[in-house]
Design goal:
It is built from 16 helices and eleven strands. It is of the alpha+beta class. α4 packs parallel to α9, α10 packs across α13 and α10 crosses α16. It starts with a helix and ends in a 16-residue tail after the last strand. 42% of the residues are buried. InterPro entries: Metalloenz_LuxS/M16 (IPR011249), MPP/UQCRC_Complex (IPR050361), Pept_M16_N (IPR011765), Peptidase_M16_C (IPR007863).
């Protein structure tokens, strides 16, 4: 047997089939439509239990922004069997921890527990999938917590305001233009009835995926899933009409004023999303471009703009190629003292333009490739990261079975591929620019996180 470190090195060098180090999860689909995926991992006597609903803020309509996130909060407020706040107490008593999260594409709930407590968690989660109380009095208290969360994390955070404003301008039609937490005006008008309608529409077994990773037997998990979740009835889901973002025909700009010490510049170009793991190529090349620009300490943005030119205090880039909707390739920077946001904007564009004109060296491509592949492989050291990867892949319409192929496609990206996408996707016609214009800092201390904020 090859030692683990040698196997990893061999993988990074392309000398070993990826399947040799990755376990194959097991899956089944219950009669009510719930998909169950189990990955056995015997390294510790624990388990991660996650339920993913294929519904997020992108499924909201104007006037109801924030309802997906608000329901996530209310999922901890009780069923006829389990009182308000009791869910968390039971998880803690079992020696575990739990939380939940909402984004544009999905809502998910998880518990990390000793393996013997898994049946109890499955029963608890199935109970609130089918029998949530949604007491108007509990909602009246929780919506205040949510509004305070918005004030703390967005309204009092200039960078969050910048990202929110940029999304609202970059997307003219797609629901990604709305913030996940919701517009404050919509939160102020939200009712428990709005949440009940959302819950009845989307929180059904045929719109959910159960993921379990840990020291478990998959057949036993399947039986327990049938015993708990299998008792819930499916319902017809609302029709999801595809929403296409119209082609952008010129640069868009937005300025946000907020209390901050320094300005920031945020650039966002429309970029393709991975739809066919085998046929698509540009999303992999764009991911590699992102690694060349900002994948390690010696990457181009930091080396050129921070260390060499001293034009920026900080720089970065980001690109997520897997989502239910469209994608953006982002570049963010804070100009150094004595330099303007306009200078930094031009310098960020110039870094991509230089790659479009001159390409990248094989050495920096090799380093970027190693960073990307290693980050994928290291996920296998965490049960939680494994469960996250499986759930996210399934919800956005890909498959966890494609992970190996995706890594192979990343490894196959060439310098010519990186240069090609740098030429293709970074024109001003598809660019939205956000500028944070700093205002004097208030003397008042920042708010603390409100009680009840869970993520």
């Amino acid at each position: 047997m090859i030692p683990r470190k040698s196997r990893l090195l061999a993988l990074l060098l392309g000398l070993l089939p990826i399947g040799a180090v990755l376990a194959n999860p097991y899956e089944t689909t219950l009669k009510n439509g719930l998909k169950v995926i189990v990955k056995e991992d015997r390294r510790a006597p624990t388990a991660v239990h996650m339920v993913w609903y294929k519904v997020g803020s992108m499924d909201e309509v104007d006037g109801t922004s924030g309802v997906a996130h608000a329901l996530e909060h209310m999922m901890f407020k009780g069923t006829p069997k389990v009182g308000p706040g009791e869910f968390n107490k039971r998880v803690a008593a079992a020696g575990g921890r739990d939380n939940a999260f909402t984004n544009y594409d999905y809502t998910a709930y998880f518990q990390q527990i000793p393996k013997q407590k898994l049946p109890e968690m499955m029963a608890l989660e199935a109970d609130r999938m089918g029998h949530l109380t949604l007491d108007p009095k509990e909602f009246a208290k929780e919506i205040q917590v949510i509004m305070e969360e918005r004030r703390m994390r967005t309204d009092d955070n200039p960078q969050s305001l910048l990202f929110e404003a940029l999304n609202a301008v970059a997307y003219s039609a797609h629901p990604y233009r709305r913030p996940v937490i919701g517009w404050m005006a919509d939160l102020e008008q939200m009712t428990a009835a709005d949440l009940r309608h959302w819950y009845q529409q989307w929180y059904v077994p045929n719109n959910a995926t159960l993921v379990v990773v840990g020291d478990v037997d998959h057949e036993a998990v399947f039986r327990q899933a049938e015993k708990t979740y299998g008792q819930l009835k499916p319902r017809a889901l609302p029709a999801r009409k595809p929403i296409a973002e119209a082609p952008q025909k010129g640069i868009r700009r937005v300025t946000v004023k907020g209390p901050a010490e320094l300005p920031q510049v945020l650039l966002a170009w429309k970029a393709p999303t991975l739809r066919d793991v085998n046929k698509d190529s540009d999303p992999y090349a764009l991911e590699m471009l992102g690694a060349v620009l900002d994948g390690h300490d010696g990457a181009r943005l930091t080396q050129h703009l921070v260390k060499d030119q001293r034009l920026a205090q900080s720089v970065g880039s980001g690109y997520d190629n897997s989502s239910r909707g469209p994608s953006l390739f982002l570049m963010l920077g804070t100009p150094a003292e004595g330099h303007t946001p306009a200078e930094l904007e031009a310098a960020l564009k110039a870094e991509v333009a230089r790659i479009a004109a001159d390409g990248v060296s094989e050495e920096e491509l090799k380093r970027a490739r190693a960073q990307l592949v290693a980050s994928q492989v290291y996920k296998r050291d965490s049960m939680f990261a494994q469960a996250m990867e499986i759930g996210q892949m399934e919800i956005v319409g890909l498959s966890y079975k494609s992970v190996e192929r995706m890594i192979e496609k990343l490894q196959a990206v060439t310098a010519a591929d990186v240069q090609r996408v740098a030429k293709q996707y970074f024109s001003d016609d598809s660019l939205t620019v956000g500028l944070l214009e700093p205002q004097p800092l208030a003397d008042a201390p920042r708010r603390r996180a409100p009680a009840g904020v869970r993520h």
